[in-house]
Amino acid sequence: MQFKETDVGQQKFLLISAIIALLITAVFIVFISYNSFRYHLIGDWGVESDFYWDQAPAAEELLKGRINTEHYRFKGPGYPLMLVPFLIVLKDSFLAARILALSSSVVILVLTFLLFKKYFNPLWAVWIVLALVTNCTFARYSFRTGTDMPFFMLCLIFYLVIVSNFRSKALTVGFLSGFACLTRYNGIALVITGLIWAAYYKNGINRKDYLRKLILTFIGLLIVVLPWCLFLYSQTGDPFCNFNFQNVAYELSKDKIESWDQFWYSDSSSSASSIINIIQLNGWSFFKMTGINLIKHFLLDMKNLLCCIVGLTVVFGIILFIFRKTISARINWLIVTGIAIYCVISMVFYSERFSMPLLPIYLIFSCLFFTSPFVIKYLKRININSKIIYLFALILILWGAPSRMNYLVAEMKIVPLEILDVVKDESFNNLPKGTMTARKPHAPYLLGHKFVALPIFNDINQLADWMLDNDIDYLFISWREAALRRELKALLRYPKGHPRLEPVARLKNVKPCGLWKLAERK
Q1: Is residue 281 scored above 80 in pLDDT?
Q2: Contact 451/441 with Cβ under 8 angstroms?
Q3: If you count DSSP H runs as helices and E runs as strands, how many of each does the chain have, helices first?
Q4: pLDDT, tens digit, for every residue of 197-208?
Q5: DSSP assigned state of 432
Q6: CA neighbor of 279 nearest in space, from 245, 243, 238, 241
Q7: Is 197:164 a contact under the CB 8 Å cutoff?
């Protein structure tokens, strides 16, 4: 369903489709902005914990010309570097991160239209844009702080670059893939795709041009990655130092461990030092787990990331793609990129947010199903034309969209607003700055204390001993911590707390919070 853009009628059709896509994007951004800035006033306890723990402090330190490797355990400097310009203007890290997420979603929606109007009728590009804005996972991470939406944006820019033709394409492919990798280390999938593209020799290509493409891709990659690797080597002795192998180790042991907290503070988290080490220790289990995940994650994507009916059209589209004789070779590179991303994320535990960059790839297959000559030919036999097919596809993605958006708004409200009351309370704010332990980093970060994660312990005495040994100044507890760590309930329940831990600040409302310090020091 391609067309010649020189045709005046088709140009008008393209313009109208582009206006519709922009209107959809505008309505989506207004909806997300209005509700998130009304309800989502602080990060949640889930993925946004990473923002307060590592990403916001990392960006703030970059502004001061400092780099602390403690904040780069799981991710490189890509996200803090993207956050810095917004932080300079807005001065507020959380606000800056939300604007970055929203801006990334706008770029994604615009580029989605530009990318897919080349291969399908522009109305199908509009359909893919509409499918994205009504997707709960996409909408959720349009307002949440973190690397998810900016990384998705980088992936989509990479998709667009790898199928385009311009003079410095090879250098750009290398640079983008490297920067995506430093934003999230599973961006190694884009590096792999970029190198496959660079090494691919097409019949008829000049040998000199081929070598130039290969060299420029490597140069673009090294421009971004090499300085970071040299810095890590100077600080840690390991040019590839990161802790993402812990996600793989957790996936291998999650049948034995109830939660991430239990894994992190157990011997399982320290039994390996790298992915290679994990493979050496658990080779068969690793490959078995990855093989199972290759199937399981796809089924979960069809069910959770998409919905079952749309997922079914994706499956049929994949089948038709395999047996389709004529299709743009450029789409093949998009699919190669998708396969690389999918294989990398199959090595870790499942989350819909990890699969977000695959959304456009999945929707390609759905469009291939709806626009397949085989399907169109069959439906014409029963007097169903292409307009009816498009209408059916629209109903498919819009069905249930209002309830999904209502659920999303309700989800925006599930945030620890009591922490904002803590920040405003003088008894919490006027204490000398020090080291604070808590289950989550929100309060320590907002109160200006150094955060140390609260370990699992058996009783208050064991916790007090740990605080003493590690020179911890304060213990922060909210009702949420007490609900998940039963040993802490007594501290919130009784005003005098514990003989070894004395309260220094308390917030007595419907959702109580408190700050304790050691009653004794060695």
Answers
A1: no
A2: yes
A3: 27, 5
A4: 999 877 777 888
A5: P
A6: 245
A7: no
Q: CA–CA separation, 196 vs 185, rounded Å?
A: 18
The C-alpha torsion from 195 through 199 and 202 to 207, rounded to 10°, is 130
**Phi then psi dihedrals of residue 341, to 5 deg:** -60, -45
Spatial CB neighbours of 502, under 8 Å, sequence gap ≥ 6:
496, 516, 517, 518, 519
514: part of which helix (H) or strand (E)?
strand 513-518
The two structure tokens encoding residue 247? 């996600």
Q: What is the pLDDT of residues 40-89, one digit of tens each?
A: 999 998 889 999 999 999 999 999 999 999 999 899 999 999 999 999 99
Amino acid identity, residue 492? L
The pLDDT score that the predictor gives to residue 156 is 95
Any residues with CB less than 8 A from the CB of 164 and at least 6 apart, and which? none
Q: pLDDT category, 4, cuts 50, 70, 90?
A: very low
CA angle (5, 371, 152) in 5-degree steps: 75
Identity at 166, one-letter amino acid code: F
- Give the CA distances from residue 510 to residues 190, 418, 507, 513, in Å, rounded to whole numbers and listed in that order: 48, 9, 9, 10
DSSP H or E run through 176:
helix 169-183
Contact 516, 497 (CB under 8 A): yes
Residue 19 class from Cβ within 10 Å (0-12 exposed, 13-18 middle, 19+ buried)?
exposed
Instruction: Give a three-class secondary structure readout of 317-362.
Output: HHHHHHHCCCCCHHHHHHHHHHHHHHHHHCCCCCCHHHHHHHHHHH
